[in-house]
Specification:
The chain is an all-alpha fold and 168 residues long. It contains eight helices and two strands, in the order ααααααββαα. It is extended.
């Protein structure tokens, strides 16, 4: 098992689990499917606005089906998080941050299972919001942010919490 960040683990009595576990991969797959459903739902709602009357009934039916699927999927995601002591503890911590709700916490837990086990600078580097120097030889300059490992994570993860996003 990986080592937890001692302060956080002690303060919240966290159990640390392997990042590449089956449970973690399943949560990430469900979140990816959720993102796909939301994208399809958005596209269908936009399509409905400019669709001829002859096809609007079919689009409305598809929107209804997508909304039902999304509700079922969100219940499954929540059930998986609640069934694991590790995910439950991490969700409680993540949701204690003002402005973080159900969807953001599920997304962070699924795409960043390392939360609670790394320092804030390590997580920042992993997400791609930590300034990294790409110096070559004697040349120097300002650091830039680059996505490290989690390029498949939704962009809001780094846009919302990036200190650089508030400066720009």
């Amino acid at each position: 098992m990986p080592r937890c960040w001692p302060g956080l683990a002690k303060r919240y009595s966290l159990l640390c689990g392997p990042f590449g576990s089956e449970e973690s991969r399943a949560l990430e797959a469900l979140l990816s499917r959720r993102r796909q459903l939301v994208e399809m739902l958005t596209a269908e709602k936009q399509r409905l606005q400019r669709a001829p009357a002859v096809v609007q009934a079919g689009i409305r039916e598809h929107i209804r089906w997508l909304e039902e699927e999304l509700a079922v999927l969100e219940k499954e995601l929540q059930a998986r998080i609640e069934s694991s002591p590790l995910w439950r503890a991490k969700e409680r911590i993540v949701r204690s941050v003002p402005g973080v709700g159900k969807v953001v916490s599920m997304t962070l837990l699924g795409h960043l299972p390392e939360i609670g086990t790394l320092t804030r600078s390590s997580i920042g580097a992993l997400v791609g919001v930590a300034p990294m120097n790409w110096d070559s030889g004697a040349s120097g300059g300002a650091g830039t942010s680059v996505a490290a490992e989690h390029q498949s994570a939704p962009p809001f993860i780094w846009q919302r919490w990036s200190p650089l996003a508030t400066i720009r």
